[in-house]
Structure formats: C-alpha cells, structure tokens
TrEMBL record:
Taxonomy, superkingdom: Bacteria
Organism in which the protein naturally occurs: Brumimicrobium glaciale
Keyword Hydrolase: yes
Example GO BP: proteolysis
PROSITE patterns: PDZ (PS50106)
Name of the protein described by the UniProt record: M20/M25/M40 family metallo-hydrolase
InterPro entries tied to this protein: M28_fam, PDZ, PDZ_sf, Peptidase_M28
Signal sequence, renumbered to the chain: 1-22
Keywords from the named record: Hydrolase, Signal
Signal in keyword set: yes
Domain PDZ: 316-387
Pfam families: PDZ_2, Peptidase_M28
GO molecular function, one term: metalloexopeptidase activity
Length: 409
C-alpha cells in the first residue's frame, strides 16, 4: 500500500510539472479572428489594422500581462511610402501604424523577445499581391502572418500561466508595417535595445502555419550566436526536417533586431501558392504542426534561459527574394523603407560586387545605368535591365556628396 501511495504521489508530481503545450482551440480562435473579412486584410494605417491591434491588446489584457514600463500596450510609429511603387510617378502617403507589446517582468537581468508581424496587404492598395487580379479583394493573410501572431499569443499564455518565475524576462511583440518594409519592428527594436540593453534573443515567427507532409521547417539566424546551432539541433522533434540558415538577415522582422546586435532565430514553414494572394485563408492552416513548432520553440527558449547571456555574432548576409529573382545584383542588403531620395544601403555583403567597387553602408543609390533609382522597386527595375559583361555607371550619394562608380556585373 505504501509503495502504491508513493507511486501515485510521484505520478501526480510528474503530471503537475509536465511542460505546458500549445492548444489548437486558442490558435484557431486567434487566426480565425485576425484573418476574418472584418479585419479587411489588416493593412497598416487602416481601420483593419486598428481592429487587429485592439484584439491583440485584449488578449494581453486577458492574460493580465503588463505593457513595457513607461509605455502603453500600443506603440505608435509613422512613415512615408510611395503609393505608386511600380510607377515612375512618385506620390507619397504618410502612414501611421501601431505595434502591440506586452511584458513579463521576472526581475531577471536578461530579456528574450517573441515577435511576429500582424499587418498584411489589405485590398492590395500598394500593389504587393502576387495575384495579378488581386486588387480590390481582401487579402486575409491567415498564414502571413496571423499564424505567427497566434504563436506569440500562445507563448504569452503559456509563460504567464505556468506558475514559474523564469530566469529571463519576456517581451511579446506584434509588429505592423512589415509588409511595407519592416517599419514597425525597426522602430521597436531600437526602443527595446535602448530600454532593455541586456536583450539577448529575439525569436520571430513569420508564416508557420502551412507545414506540409515533408515536415520541413526553415530556421534562420543560427549563426547570430555560437550557442544557437547546438540547442536548435538538440531540441528538434524527431519527425521534423529542419533547414538551417546562419544569416541574421532576411525578409522579416528579425532583421531589425539583428541590426541592433541582438541574436535572432527565424521560424518559417516556407512559401506556397497562396502567398500574398486573397486565397491565404484560415481553413488551410495545419494546426497540429503549428502546435509542434510552438512547443519546439519553447523547448529552445527554456534551454537557452539557463545561460541567457547569449553572445552576439555578426553573420554574412544572404539576400532572400520572395518573388522575382534577377541574374545580377550589387550584393547589398537594402533598406526597404522609402526615403524618397534613393535606395539606402543598409549593409554591403562581403566579397560581392558592391564591396569590390567601394560602395559602403549608408550610401544612397540614385541611378544604375539609365534607370533612376528612388526606392526598392525602381532598384529592382534597374537590376532587371542588366546584361552580362557590360559596365554600368552607378550614381550614389555619400555624406551628401554625389559620386559615380563604373560597375561590371
């Protein structure tokens, strides 16, 4: 009898300390609401974005999470954007957006960030749809990126209700303005770096809802700290096939934190035929696999939290293109924000064309060959006109001084 009582007590103790798991029903609720037609595609600066932000805030409040110290849940930002990006006629909109942020203060020295963007394309007002007939139709963005937001909210629920005082603080950040150039995360990353200088990890979820039968999961950023590679591999679910990328830079919000010298990880289940189309709808989400991805990310975080002072490592840049590709490139990572005076170089890739011809971070490209460059779209247009074994004049400004270099691609 005593042995039976002891065994029962041990089983009860084991059950009580089982790690919290992601739940289908809450994930489905989040994605159904955020990707419903009522949200009108969640375009930054619209009523749909505000409705989505209100919903996210309500979930943080329901969990009794706090805003960041000296802030509200919503963090405002504004920027200008060329509303005719594929035209040489320049016309700018001034857009106001909101990030939504919550905080768990464990009184720890170091802080980890979970992040995902919640904005999407609206009715294709800015011509970013991959559907040639998409203008005027709601782009609900269930995978892109209601899925990532659902993951952040689920992790917020798990960490706020596990009755454990973790060895790190947590920030849960939902960004807007990603689709128009990582604008919201760029603003928030600077705030977090300033106010939480010991932030030592950012995990970004962008399109994690469409894992297929191959169980492929892309994880970027593993080279941004020497600790990440081994932990990511050791915690991998046995049936997952993971594709690892060392670069801290890619076409999503983790890039903004990488540029603040914060180690990053980027979870992404890959592109699909519904990417940036009105057909990216909720019923296509694989909730079971989403649960597994969230549990996997939590296992990684729990392991890293034992020694949370992750050293930052600069990585070689790798430019990912989500749609159109080009035979030739300068070998730069551009700023996606539209400044109106040319394409701003964020960083020059090592041993590539731009470095060879003396271009530097901070330079502003204004013309390639005969094509004027005012933003990312006219830059891509210029690249599409390049031909092999020909030299082209590249005009740029550096410290307000106009300069020209002749480049052979």
């Amino acid at each position: 009898m005593k042995n039976t009582i002891k065994l029962s007590a041990l089983l009860l103790l084991f059950i009580v300390h089982l790690p919290a798991k992601a739940q289908d029903n809450k994930l489905k609720q989040h994605i159904q609401i955020l990707s419903s037609d009522s949200m009108q595609g969640r375009l930054v600066g619209t009523i749909g974005e505000q409705m989505a932000a209100d919903y996210i805030q309500s979930q943080f409040e329901e969990l009794k999470l706090s805003p960041l110290p000296n802030h509200s849940y919503k963090h405002d930002f504004s920027f200008t954007y060329n509303k005719n990006p594929h035209s040489y006629e320049i016309s700018y909109d001034t857009i106001k957006g909101q990030n939504v942020v919550a905080y768990i203060d464990n009184g720890a020295k170091h802080t980890f960030v979970f992040g995902a963007h919640y904005d999407h394309l609206g009715h294709n007002e800015y011509n970013l749809s991959t559907d040639p007939n998409g203008t005027g139709f709601i782009h609900n963005g269930a995978d892109d990126n209601a899925s990532g937001v659902a993951a952040v909210l689920e992790l917020a629920k798990i960490y706020s209700s596990n009755n454990i005082k973790e060895s790190v603080n947590f920030i849960f950040a939902c960004f807007s303005g990603e689709e128009l150039g990582l604008v919201g995360s760029n603003a928030l990353a600077k705030t977090i770096k300033s106010e939480f200088p010991n932030t030592s990890l950012m995990i970004n979820f962008d399109m994690i809802g469409r894992m297929d039968s191959t169980n492929n999961l892309n994880i970027g950023g593993i080279g941004t700290s020497p600790i990440l590679n081994d932990v990511v591999k050791s915690k991998k679910p046995i049936d997952f096939n993971i594709e690892l990328d060392s670069s801290g830079v890619g076409p999503s919000d983790h890039s903004s934190f990488y540029y603040q010298d914060i180690p990053v990880l980027f979870f992404f289940t890959g592109l699909h035929t519904d990417y940036h189309k009105p057909s990216d709808d909720e019923h296509k989400i694989n909730y079971s696999k989403m649960n597994d991805i969230i549990d996997y990310s939590k296992a990684i975080v729990d392991s890293l939290a034992f020694s949370p002072n992750l050293p930052f490592t600069k990585t070689k840049l790798k430019i990912e293109k989500r749609s159109k590709t080009y035979k030739y490139s300068l070998g730069i990572f551009p700023e996606y924000k539209n400044y109106g005076d040319g394409l701003h170089i964020q960083e020059v890739i090592e041993n590539r064309t731009a470095e060879k011809y003396g271009l530097k971070s901070g330079d502003i490209i204004t013309k390639i060959g005969k094509t004027d460059v005012s933003d990312i779209y006219s830059y891509m247009e210029a690249l599409s006109k390049l031909k092999a074994d020909k030299s082209y004049k590249v005009k740029f400004t550096r410290d307000e001084k106009e300069m020209v270099v002749k480049v052979k691609f």
